[in-house]
Every structure is written in C-alpha cells, then in structure tokens.
Design goal:
Length: 201
C-alpha cells in the first residue's frame, strides 16, 4: 500500500513539501480538516510563521486532534516554524504562543537574527545518506535553533562554521524529525526520502 503523508496546509511552504513528498514516492495530501488528518500516516509541518499557524490550528479545530495523533506516535517532520510547533519548550515566543509539543527540545525562535540575517550553509546530517561527501545545502530563514535536547533526542546536525558554529539545527526523537532549515526548497530529496522511509516503518 502506498504511504500517505499529509502536509499541514494552514499557512507556509505547503506546495513545496507536497511536491517533494510525491517525488519521494509517497502520496501527499494537504491537511486542513480533522477528517484529512485522520487519513494520513505521517505529517509534515511546514515553515511559515509559527504564531500564525498556532492561531489557525485553533481556529480550524485541529490543535487537539493533532496533539493526540502526535501523542500516539504519528511520524512528523517539522521545518523551521514546524520545528517550533513540535517543540515541548520555546524561548522567544510571543506571550500567548503555544506549541503542539511532541519533541523533547527547547527551541529558540528567530535565533539567528532578523530576516536580513537569513543564510545558507552546507551540513552533514546524520541519517541522510552520503551527506559527508555530498552535504545538505541548508537554507535558514528567520530560523530557530535547538537550545536544549532531552535524553531521548538524537542530534542530527549542527552548524559547522561562522558565528553560529555548533548550534543544533536538526534533531530526531523516535519518528519525529525537525530541521531549523528548509529542506523543501533546494530540490535535494534526501530528507523527504528519509521521512517517507520513517513513515513506511
Ligand atoms: N520565524 C518564524 C516563526 O517564528 C519561522 C520562520 C520560517 O518558518 N521560515 O515562526
């Protein structure tokens, strides 16, 4: 049976993730309703604006069902704002900002600075085949970094040079993966393939 992977489609980089998932061999569907969430085997939470997605999750009555699916172990991939939404703890959020949780990490929102400080770099990412020889080109846009990880969390990548050297920018806990950067906009399918494989179990 072909694996169905949803992309939370309230705001953000939805189309790009759908295309990358399809190219990685999954059936990819946008998720805006509870019935659509019920039909997916795993979910991508895209980059965008975490405060906006947080509000829309409540407006669309998706927040509680999604928390429930995550608590039951549904595989998830969060990028940038998606990483923030998956984090159990957040630093630098707005006063009333809530996350979904599911990942035992503390994220720092807008950690790298403002929009002008967005940057690109090459990364070796654990679990991504061949990424030492052929690094993942990572694009950071007002990105968070991971300030702290719990004992069950595997660090997949750290920034290798420059002022943010050593900062954690990709993590995995069980079947939940999160990246500070945007794997959906470079055409490199390896992270989406890794996630589809996780969903396929
Ligand atoms: N800074 C954004 C936020 O707080 C995330 C940016 C992004 O997803 N590209 O949600």
């Amino acid at each position: 049976m072909i694996t169905t992977v949803g992309v939370l489609a309230l705001q953000g980089d939805v189309r790009e993730h759908l295309a990358m998932l399809e190219a990685s061999g999954a059936r990819a569907v946008p998720v805006r309703r509870r019935s659509e969430l019920d039909g997916v085997d795993g979910l991508v939470i895209p980059g965008g604006e975490s405060t906006t997605i947080d509000k829309l999750l409540r407006a669309f009555d998706l927040r509680d069902p999604l928390r429930e699916r995550l608590a039951q172990g549904m595989p998830a991939l969060g990028s940038c704002a998606g990483m923030i939404l998956l984090a159990d703890r957040i630093v630098g959020g707005t006063v009333d900002q809530q996350t979904l949780g599911g990942l035992d990490i503390t994220v720092r929102r807008n950690a790298f600075g403002r929009q002008v400080d967005s940057f690109e770099t090459d990364l070796e990412v654990a679990g991504v085949p061949d990424s030492r020889a052929r690094p993942v080109h990572a694009v950071f846009i007002r990105a968070p970094w991971v300030e702290e990880v719990g004992p069950g969390v595997e660090v997949l990548a750290r920034v290798e040079g420059g002022p943010a050297a050593g900062r954690i920018v990709a993590v995995r806990e069980r079947d939940v993966v999160a990246t500070s950067f945007h794997p959906e906009i470079t055409g490199d399918l390896r992270l989406h393939r890794l996630f589809v494989q996780i969903v396929e179990g």
